[in-house]
Amino acid sequence: MKRTLTIPTLLLFLAATILPTGCSNGPKKTSAGSQALSGTDEQIFIGDTVEKNYDPNVIMKRAEAFFDKEDYPEAIIEYQHFLDLHRIHQLAPYAQYKLGESHFKMAKTIDRDPEPIYRALEAFEKLRRDYPGNRYDAEAGEKIRAGHDWIAQAHFFVGQFYYRREAYLAAARRFETILKEYPDMQVAPDAMYYLALSYHEIGANDWAQENLLALAQRYPENKYQAESQRLLAKLQSEQQATPVALAGVSSNGTPAAQNAVVASGLSRSNGSSPQATTQAALTPVVTITPVVSLTPVSAALSTSPQASSTSHNQLDPQTTLCRLGTWC
Length: 328
Description:
Among the domains are: about 45-135, Serine Threonine Protein Phosphatase 5, Tetratricopeptide repeat, CATH 1.25.40.10; about 165-245, Alpha Horseshoe (Serine Threonine Protein Phosphatase 5, Tetratricopeptide repeat); about 250-285, no CATH class. Helix content is about 70%, strand content about 0%. The protein has 15 helices and no strands.
């Protein structure tokens, strides 16, 4: 006996067969789309060898992925790889800027290695030099100034370290570097004040006075006004008292009275008046060598036994003074 399928039964059978298939296609499409999006990072790392190593878009995506993950050493490698292969690409200025920013973010604190800051400055300066007028020029200028300020603070930190340990020559060298290379940085007034203190500690009071006067002129709102004025007054009063102390000493360091006796004996041989000779001998001769500028000048240190016994933080009185930048 044959069974016949009615139309309603056939429709129900077809519906039961088609509906599950139709519902299963939707999720598969959505899953494929989401998988493509989530696998973007993986694709730029495991793609075709030629594309992975030479395609500018792939290299840039890989660099950006490392930068976003704060893996700056790897980001630096990829940005530099991009620039090596595609220096005239439209994204080259951006890659150069991000290269400098990656170096900048690797810098820690001022008591750490400043090498990342120097590399960042080099990258930003190269950006402005190789791609003039680029859209990142203003931001690069701000980064350069921030880098200079960072380096100046690092020099001041080291200078204070030496000063606290009474290594005044080494401290003065650091403070001089700040004033020479970064005079517009925030820490410059502090460096000038501590440079004057360092000069005072090694006995170079003329240089100390120069820097105290310059501090008041260049940075009138500095925070060391009271201290610097007191030290300047002290140094000036000591300088005024020095000629009085030298009045009883001749230019060769021999007491003037002794020179007068010797001179009176010599006067008999040449017929001059003993009174005139004695009067001339009693007249002190003091030679003062003025300091003309703040620019370091070259001079050789004495190697005599007397000089070798002098403390490393003191200047031998017989040694011609020189600026610290040339020999310490």
